[in-house]
Design a protein that fits this description.
By secondary structure, the protein is α+β, with helices and mostly antiparallel strands. It has 4 domains: about 90 residues, Uridine Diphospho-n-acetylenolpyruvylglucosamine Reductase, domain 2, CATH 3.30.43; about 120 residues, Uridine Diphospho-n-acetylenolpyruvylglucosamine Reductase, domain 3 (2-Layer Sandwich), CATH 3.30.465; about 120 residues, 2-Layer Sandwich (Alpha-Beta Plaits); about 80 residues, Alpha-Beta Plaits (2-Layer Sandwich). Helix content is about 35%, strand content about 20%. The protein is built from 17 helices and 18 strands. The strands form 4 sheets. A 7-stranded antiparallel beta sheet has the order 15-12-14-13-17-18-16, with helices on both faces. Strands 5-6-10-8-9 form a 5-stranded antiparallel beta sheet. A hairpin with a 4-residue loop joins β5 and β6. α9 packs across α11 and α9 runs antiparallel to α14. The longest helix is centred in the last third of the chain and has 22 residues. The chain is globular and about 70 Å long. The protein binds D-malate and zinc ion (ZN). Keywords: FAD, Flavoprotein. Pfam families: FAD-oxidase_C, FAD_binding_4. It comes from Curvibacter cyanobacteriorum. This is FAD-binding oxidoreductase.
Length: about 500
């Protein structure tokens, strides 16, 4: 565990005065109503405390803020769009000394688009939407696609190694980042804004900042990979016989359509019921109710007709073999949008309902169907009325396995009774199947203590060694990601 070097913490007034001198009075917020949106997490589950929120407009300012806070033992919590589902971007509620939230939203410039090297260089506060638009304007694709793309920022996407609905084809954020600039806890700047696809000159330091959730440094800029823009896409919804049938259909799609398979998303019957209840004006794409469905998207540089024919071939093979029970191919861009809307609104529908136990797990595809069956049985054995909201990125092995309270049971009551036992059961089954207890949402504070059950002593010790090497005072985003180390047992001396 890290130990602060500063015996007497500085006062809030000192902090505000020093940081105002760096970023200017307009960019140093101190009043409670102004602080509220920055100290409250996206789902309203975590509310922290901060002495101030600073909004620097350059890497130099971030560096100066960090250097001052480091010299005075002040905690800094980096923040992008504040869309973490794990409470990773807000300060702790009970901190021993005042924290500063450092939000990067003013650093929102696209710095360069290189269509020869196929790279996009931008500041960390650019939203994912703006990054995708900048790529599109240059005739390219930046392929990361997640529900919060209008508000999440590239720096947050990097810090959390964001995933989403196109990982099957393009990989996670880690696969899309070529270079990173980051400010270290002591204010030094790591300048790694290189656009190289090959660079074997020792440790790949940028990886330290990708997925470490702002505990090792603050990402201030990045070089991202651009891809060719697809010219055609074809989208279908298919009702499938079971999770195992969905996996078999994915195999069929890969065999027939190869690289064109861009998304393969699972949707359980209760997830569709829930989302349709909220959307109101959207009808179910199927006549009958089904327990399991998949949304399949193919994209390529070929013609739209050719792609539709390929997807039809996949669906017909599925119907012939009994994997597919019913299917509907989007006939227009508007249809495709509706199918995607159904999928993407599931998350919000749960938030609005309240009482959802979010388990964001990944399991090797070869074991995912058995995992879903076993975890469903385990949850229903605990509370048979639970609504099984199971959906997500099956194509890459990531399911959002989110048991939801029965309709007539208050959220608080259900979570108090079942949050612990259900999440422990689901996580343990995923772990036993060779999976991960956090596939794409990160660890933050929500999953921090669970890591001690699922990571080996060696892994945990290495994580702490890295943290201590970069942030020996433990001032950067404390209380996130790393579970408190378990003290070594005292061995009695003979
Ligand atoms: C999604 O894929 O919709 C989100 O990652 C899941 C969520 O918000 O729980
Ligand atoms: Zn997801």
């Amino acid at each position: 565990m890290t130990t602060p070097l500063h015996a007497s913490p500085v006062s809030t007034d000192d902090i505000v005065q020093a940081l105002t001198a760096i970023v200017g009075p307009q960019a140093c917020l101190t009043q409670a109503p102004d602080l509220k949106p920055f100290v409250t997490d996206y789902r309203g589950l975590y509310v922290g405390q901060a002495a101030a929120v600073v909004l620097p407009n350059s890497t130099q300012q971030v560096s100066q803020v960090m250097a001052w806070c480091h010299a005075h033992g002040v905690v800094v919590v980096p923040q992008g769009g504040n869309t973490s589902l794990m409470g990773g971007a807000v300060p702790e509620a009970q901190a021993s000394s005042p924290a500063v939230v450092l939000n990067l939203r003013r650093m929102n410039q696209v710095l360069a688009v290189d269509t020869v090297n196929d790279t996009l260089t931008l500041q960390a506060g650019v939203t994912l939407n703006a990054a995708r638009s900048a790529a599109e304007d240059a005739g390219r694709l930046f392929p990361l696609r997640i529900g919060s793309e209008g508000s999440c920022q590239i720096g947050g996407n990097i810090s959390t190694n964001a995933g989403g609905t196109a990982v099957l084809r393009y990989g996670n954020m880690r696969d899309l980042v070529l270079g990173v600039e980051a400010v270290l806890p002591d204010g030094r700047i790591y300048s790694g804004l290189r656009g190289l696809r090959k660079d074997n000159t020792g440790y790949d330091l940028k990886q330290l900042f990708i997925g470490s959730e702002g505990t090792l440094g603050i990402v201030t800029a990045a070089v991202l990979k651009l891809m060719p823009q697809p010219t055609a896409s074809s989208v279908a919804l298919a009702a499938v016989a079971s999770p195992a049938a969905a996996v078999a259909l994915l195999g069929e799609a890969k065999k027939t359509a190869g690289q064109a398979v861009t998304a393969f998303e699972l949707i359980s019957g209760p997830a569709l019921d829930l989302v349709l209840g909220y959307l109101g004006n959207v009808k179910s794409p199927f006549e009958a109710r089904h327990d399991w469905m998949v949304l399949i998207e193919l994209t390529s540089g070929a013609s739209a007709e050719g792609l539709d024919a390929t997807l039809m071939q996949v669906l017909e093979a599925g119907l012939d073999s009994g994997l597919v029970l019913d299917a509907t191919l989007a006939q227009s861009g508007a249809d495709a949008q509706t199918f995607w809307r159904i999928r993407e609104e599931i998350s919000d529908a749960q938030t609005r309902t309240g009482g959802s136990i979010k388990c964001d797990v990944s399991v090797p595809l070869s074991r995912i169907a058995a995992f879903i069956d076993e975890a469903t049985a385990a949850v229903l054995a605990l509370e048979p009325q639970t609504r099984m909201i199971v959906y997500g990125h099956m194509g890459d092995g990531n399911v959002h396995f989110n048991p939801l309270r029965p309709a007539d049971r208050p959220a608080k009551d259900y979570l108090a009774a079942f949050y612990e036992p259900i999440s422990r059961q689901v996580d343990s089954l995923a772990h036993a199947a060779g999976g991960s207890i956090s596939a794409e949402h990160g660890v933050g504070v929500a999953k921090r203590d669970d890591l001690s059950h699922y990571k080996s002593d060696v892994e945990l010790a290495l994580m702490w060694q890295i943290k201590n090497a970069l942030d020996p005072q433990g001032l950067l985003n404390p209380g996130k990601v790393l579970p408190a180390p378990v003290a070594a047992p005292v061995v009695a001396q003979a």
